[in-house]
Structure formats: structure tokens, C-alpha cells
Design brief:
The protein is mainly alpha-helical and 155 residues long. The protein has five helices and no strands. One of its GO terms (biological process) is late endosome to vacuole transport via multivesicular body sorting pathway. It is found in: Membrane.
């Protein structure tokens, strides 16, 4: 048995982790997004009835994630190659603002559903409300990790 792991090498932590920043932020962001939707699917598949309208904040948060990450940081700063377009830098900033507003709106709606439908009526099982809130919070953090965790706008 001796020597069976001699050929296995571990990555060196001494190398510059900033070179891998885009990869790490993409993986973390995708993981948070996946876990958020997985939690909500788990709550929706439970035996208790789950109102289909409670999926709306998650859909808005997902759309907000795409809207926030559709605009590059260079476009917002006005340093992009494509300075034209519909409104140029102003259009990119307005699009980003609308995306942030949708993300915050989805998170606020998830809080409202949690407390208005599960906590205040004093239901025995509050897991569906907690799952809705966790889904939206994880998608919200996923959008921010992907947007601000990257060093460049390249993939």
C-alpha cells in the first residue's frame, strides 16, 4: 500500500490566486444560484400545498441577475469599445439600476411572503417561506459575486 498516492499532486497555494479570480467568482456565483433554486424546488415538492404565485420573486430575481450581468463594468464607466447604442453610457447605467431595483424588489417580496404568509399567521411549518427567502437571498448574492468578483469583463 505504500506509495499509492505518490503520483497525486496538490495545487500550490503560493501561486497568485488573483489570476484565477474570474474562474472562482463564476463557480461561486453559479453554485449560489443553483443552491437557491434547489432549495425552492425542495420546498415546492413537499407534501404541503405551495401557492404557485410564490415563485414570482425568484423569477424576478433571476431576471435581475441576467440584467445586472448583461452590462459590463466598462460600459458603465464609459470605457467600452461600443460607446454608441441606444443611450450609450446612460443607457447602461439605467439598465443596471433597473436590474438592481428588480433584485432588491425580489428580496423584499420574499420577506413579505415569509412573514405575511407563514410567520404572522403562526403556521406550524414555515419552511416554504424560509425557502422562498433563502432562494432570493442566494440569487441576490450570486448576482453581486458575479458582477463585482471579476477582474476583467472577459470570460
Amino acid at each position: 500500500m505504500s506509495g499509492c498516492l505518490d503520483g497525486v499532486s496538490c495545487p500550490s497555494w503560493s501561486e497568485n490566486i488573483a489570476e484565477q479570480r474570474n474562474l472562482i467568482s463564476s463557480i461561486v456565483s453559479g453554485g449560489l444560484f443553483f443552491i437557491g433554486w434547489w432549495i425552492l424546488i425542495d420546498a415546492a415538492a413537499a407534501k404541503e400545498p405551495f401557492d404557485p404565485a410564490f415563485h414570482t420573486p425568484g423569477v424576478f430575481s433571476t431576471l435581475a441577475l441576467f440584467m445586472i450581468n448583461a452590462v459590463s463594468n466598462a460600459q458603465v464607466r464609459g470605457e467600452s469599445y461600443y460607446s454608441g447604442g441606444c443611450l450609450g453610457q446612460t443607457g447602461a447605467r439605467v439598465w443596471l439600476l433597473i436590474g438592481f431595483l428588480m433584485a432588491f424588489g425580489g428580496l423584499i417580496a420574499a420577506c413579505w411572503i415569509l412573514f405575511g404568509a407563514y410567520v404572522v399567521p403562526d403556521k406550524d411549518n414555515t419552511w416554504p417561506g424560509v425557502a422562498i427567502f433563502l432562494q432570493n437571498a442566494l440569487i441576490f448574492f450570486s448576482a453581486f459575486v458575479f458582477k463585482f468578483g471579476r477582474t476583467e469583463d472577459s470570460f
